[in-house]
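User: My advisor, Dr. K., asked me to get a structural model of this assembly before our group meeting. I'm new to this, so sorry if the format is off. These are the inputs:
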Amino acid sequence: GCSGPGASTGSGGASGGASALPANCKSDKPTLAVSLPNTVNPYYVAMRQSFIDNGAKAGFTVKVAIANDSDSSQLAQVQSFIQQNVCVVALNPVTSGPGAAEVNLLTKAHIPVFTVNIDADRDQVKSGGGSIVEYVGADQKEGGKVMADAALEDLGSKPAVVGIAGEPNETVTVDRDKAFEAEITAKSSTSKVVASVDTKVDPQVSLQVVTEMLQGHPEINTVFADTGPAAVGSIQAIKQLGLSGKVTLYAFCAANTKLDSVLYRGCAAQQPSLYAQIVADNAAKFIKGETVPEMVFQPVKVFTEGQQPAEDELG
Amino acid sequence: MSAHHTDQGCDVNLRRFRWPDETGIFVVLLIVLGVFAALSESFRSASNGGILLLNGSVVGFLALGQTFVLLTGGIDLSTGAMIATTGVLAPIMLKAGIPWPIAALLTLGIGAGAGAISGIVVHYVKVPPFIATFAAQGVLSSIPLIITGANSVTVTDQGFAFIGQGYLAGIPVPVVLLILAAILGALFLRWTKAGVHLYAVGGNRAAARLAGVNIARTTILAYALSGMCGAFGGLIATSRLMVGFPNTGLGNELFFSIAAAVVGGVSLFGGIGSIPGAMIGAVLIATVSDGMNVTNVNSYWQPLVIGVIILLGVAIDTYRRSRRGNPIRLSRWNAIRSGRRAAVGTPAKS
Amino acid sequence: MSAHHTDQGCDVNLRRFRWPDETGIFVVLLIVLGVFAALSESFRSASNGGILLLNGSVVGFLALGQTFVLLTGGIDLSTGAMIATTGVLAPIMLKAGIPWPIAALLTLGIGAGAGAISGIVVHYVKVPPFIATFAAQGVLSSIPLIITGANSVTVTDQGFAFIGQGYLAGIPVPVVLLILAAILGALFLRWTKAGVHLYAVGGNRAAARLAGVNIARTTILAYALSGMCGAFGGLIATSRLMVGFPNTGLGNELFFSIAAAVVGGVSLFGGIGSIPGAMIGAVLIATVSDGMNVTNVNSYWQPLVIGVIILLGVAIDTYRRSRRGNPIRLSRWNAIRSGRRAAVGTPAKS
Amino acid sequence: MTGELAARALSRRYGNTLALDGVDATIRRGEVHGLMGHNGAGKSTLLRLLTGADRPDSGAITIDGSEVRLARPADAHAAGIIAVYQELSLIENLTVSENLFLAGELTTAGRLDRAAMNRVADDLLAKYRIDATATTVLRDLPVASRQLIEVASALRRNVKYLLLDEPTTALSPTQIEELLQQLKRIATEENVGVVLVDHRLDEVFSVADRITALTDGRVLLSGSTAQVTRADVERAIIGHESEPTARAARSAAPASTGETLLSVRDIRSARLRGVSLEASAGRVLGIYGLVGSGRSRVLRAIFGEERLSGGEMVLGGHPYAPASPADAIRSGIAFVSEERKSDGFIPEFHPRENVTLPVLDRFQSAGILRLGRARAAAEEALGRVRIHGDLQQPIARLSGGNQQKVLLSRAMLQSPRVLLLDEPTKGIDIGTKAEIHDLIRELAHGGDRAVVLVSTEEEELLGVADDILVIRNGRSAGRLHRAEDLTVAELRRLALESPEAALAGV
Ligand SMILES: Nc1ncnc2c1ncn2[C@@H]1O[C@H](COP(=O)(O)OP(=O)(O)OP(=O)(O)O)[C@@H](O)[C@H]1O
Ligand SMILES: Nc1ncnc2c1ncn2[C@@H]1O[C@H](COP(=O)(O)OP(=O)(O)OP(=O)(O)O)[C@@H](O)[C@H]1O
Ligand SMILES: [Mg+2]
Ligand SMILES: [Mg+2]
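Assistant: The format is fine. Below is the predicted structure of the whole assembly, which you can bring to the meeting.
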């Protein structure tokens, strides 16, 4: 299931102190500046489009910068936002550590920041004197957990022998993997994770490394792919090794891919468009002086056999 | 003329049979294979052999193309981006209803054409190859993003799967294609004028020109071949997933392709190297990558392991050459850095 | 002496004043600056100038280090990974309570030491620089992941922020550091024996050796300097974010650093080039990157735009040189590929 | 059937240097045309223009009276004009046969006919008595063989005009004789127009039908050998008639019999099988041997460039075991190598920078170079040899002979205790050659220095050296000969004899 915009799991919240806002916020069409990690992943393509559409609806001039997965370009872009004296920034950090530095810079320049999808490292934000108006994103850990549950349910009494097709260098994906592993070992003492490979969030690389992982570990009966591109590669790897029926895939949802009853049996989707919409709406509220929640954890949307996630429902 | 001393037995032997230059790195490959096989039963399985080669086929094609360019003393940085471009162009053509074999040939043609443009820029505009192909890389990695809006393009024609997923006589089609291409390439280098001219241009451009070699044609040909090899990579990548992704091939592929060639003895300074060598280099890299995943090496350690294995491999190869007692060949690199410019040169003793 | 004809006015002028080699690419830089300034008001702002240089400072340092290595005819692929390693080592040292200036110096020392190891492998093990530094890259990109488990390391000592975020006389500290380092580097190349030896080794290794140049020391020095420059990059990157991230520097940095040097006229074949040239190249690349972001060029188009601008820039520079009627320099690449080996050889006029 | 290739008012400028200034020259088929001139006179430039390797600024090239445009060497090849350039233009990573047939490969049905090419190549190698096989990689061959292979490669082509730029410099006297005969034969029997650039008057006069002398890019003299005398040519090249020969000079300035500076005892390496020698202060020690006998290796061994497997050296009374040339230089040894292009100079460095490279230590204070002082010293050193050409340009742009002069002045600047010279006058014009001979002798006879000289030119060796050591097959007899006691014929006999016989004999 999916809850509507604005559902809040956090408490407190913040309200826009109109006096502290940048001058730009008082113009007719204040600028909402968005910085996204890349636009080669359909996930961010959907998010960008939603920011453009919903931002305009909410009365903003929307400016989107793409960091090409580089922390330093993202920092540069944030600095350029400060220069251009934008009203409010929506930041999807490339990585959360450096994201904190960007938040701190923006706070120093008195520009309110919303983080979306990937949060900035909170400890560093605190120690650096920054503040984040609101975080909007999926509950990553929940995503890993529900997929583990689905896997165990499908296996019945059999233990899950898991291989992870992962991205070990990002905190969000590591959270997913950890939650998956914790759930699966907690619920079934005989289940375990036996291997994990680095997919680099690239379908082609995923295909290669997952085939190799399955070669090395013929005992694997469950693959957990922690991103959409990894899911795409994993599906092909399982199919092409002729392991369809023996190995089942649970994943964060791949684009344009239908689930089935044999191989790709469950996926958890985030809703990038929805997160962008929430941020745009709440940013508009915030600059009008209204209170917005500090944390918005959207539950992941779960898909099973026969379903196909929509264009903007991705891993 | 220079004295031959038959009393120096080893010299006579040396003359009678000389191991080909590729022997050293081939032995290294065997050792690496042996170590992984000892470590993991699954690695020893026949099917893993197929998968290893299959997974290495794209880098293998890039290394093949790169070899032609490196032999002329150039470098092709656009070869990974070529995968991205051709990898989405092919499914777009298929969508337009072009039968897959024709679409595949057209894609290869486009690859060769785009490569030829790099060659033309290198030769006529006289821009260093690094810059010309750096620009080509930029263009070729933008094109698929622009065309597709960063969306993937699904292949609609199931026949196309043959290229990446088919088998011929039990061998995966990409591997068959690569082997064929490598054999053709090696024959081309050895048995055609153009092949010898590639070596000549890389060995000494000025001298080749004075001898009447058509430098323009040779240079353009090398880049066109590399482009075509890149297009093979794009076809295989897309066919394996049956989806074209606009950012495929922009990862380690380029690096690995150059490294494969260099490991196999191809000189970055041109004129030295062979296709069998480059292919052994590519298989070595594929083996290490495959072996690390099969034996579950932690991904954090993987760059280190691959770096160290390749370094050791090349070092062993270098040492073996130095033992052959041919001072000028002491080290290929020395030969290149000094011997090359340095005509007769100094014994590499520094 | 050979006949001089003063009636040929332009030649007399030529002799009186020769534009330095870097002029061409500098003019290209001015044009690019002009175009972006015309396109965007924000680009023109003074503070943008600071930011542009600030953002370019890491690549600038890498290009500086790369220049030393390229001059010897080598290449340093490990320079991006050096950022990753030193970028997490520094905050770890700070965590251990080492005062930041000392931690910074230690980090630079580690960078130089790690670079020196590459140099030692290149020289003594005689492995091609591409392979030696490829291995170094693997090791240096694994180390920070292994140490940190892919987590970032927060800087606890606020004083450390000075390196990346401080200002001196209104100029960002990284820019000041880079300018100082570049000036020192340029002086080093011109006014010290070791500097002259770097060029000599890259120009003709065998001849340099016979002229008494210590090849080992020179080679190792070049890689150590490059390592130290990489460590500067790591310090700056970490200090700007106040967090060391084990993946920093593994993106485009390496490529851009080589491209910057080559754009600025440094030859990949060694012996030719200058630090001012490499720095102009780095600023050009920083300008294009910054300009594209400030003027909001669609990210899909960015690789294409940067590639094309750099290609045009180098092509214009090449053309300008060719007009000087200086046959050996007709094309830098030609000069390198032929003129170099072929000494007086033939004027490259093919 | 005759024909002619002609230059009409050709001019070519390189930067500040006018290399050719309205040159007219006519090459007739069936004749050998000797082209002479001082270093930097423009000989090589003229050849390059005639073969499309470079293009003139003005003037025309005609074949049988009609103008042709030679945009690239391939155009010239098509017109039957083939050249052998001064700087070897073979490709080191290719085999002998690949080089011989480059751009003119034999094919059958599009496929290279390697067997046929190897056959032809082996025949050619046998014909020119080159110790190599068709499949030898060029890199492994000595310079002399390469030189011959290049000539052979030119002759193999369908040639009407054959232009050779100093083809004899690296060759032994017998090889030179054979080559010259070949050229004469080709000209007359195959109706080829041969241009021979050569600094040695004897060689030119022995074969040429016609001689042209260039000075500063202009034709100063041109005519048939019947009309032109040696004195005319000498005057054209050096501005006056040749000075007394080196041999005469030596007898005028007798050498001292100084103490032994360097003594080499039974050194061995991969290709040296026991060489001993003693170089004494105040004397020039010549080393003679056949090509490939190991002369260059002896010099390189002394200079720390050859890994020794046995033997020992003593320098100035102390054991001497250089680990590198840097060591040797520090010990006061200087070396001029025989292949200037490969390991002589740094091509992008200006002559000045090349000259000071080995002695930069001298111009350092507090770790910083005193470039002004270095420059002054370099200019002084370069001033001792007259250099034609632009010193403000990289050395690669000087003519071959002038490059050699730069390297000689570099060795002089080192003011070494022991000076090792390997073919020091390679490619140097007759005027300068005499000066260099004087210089070498002055240097040695000045007192506390020793010179070791390797030269393929017997006259030079006999003229300049005081003592001569003969090396054969990497071995020396250990016995010195007084140069004044020897003749060219005796030298050759010694070189051919076994060392043992030489010991017993003479
Ligand atoms: N590529 C070049 N760039 C600049 N100057 C050049 C170039 N080639 C030749 N020159 C100059 O042209 C002049 C004529 O040189 P050339 O090589 O024709 O002389 P040469 O008569 O062959 O001399 P040598 O006997 O020493 O070989 C010299 O002053 C030389 O420095
Ligand atoms: N195969 C080879 N290996 C190493 N060095 C070589 C080789 N061939 C030639 N050289 C180098 O070229 C130089 C001349 O070659 P060559 O073998 O003729 O030397 P050499 O025996 O000293 O002959 P010469 O007596 O004619 O000088 C040598 O000093 C050596 O440095
Ligand atoms: Mg000449
Ligand atoms: Mg010799």
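One thing worth pointing out at the meeting: The CA atoms of residues 328 and 344 of chain B lie 8 Å apart.

User: Perfect, thanks a lot.
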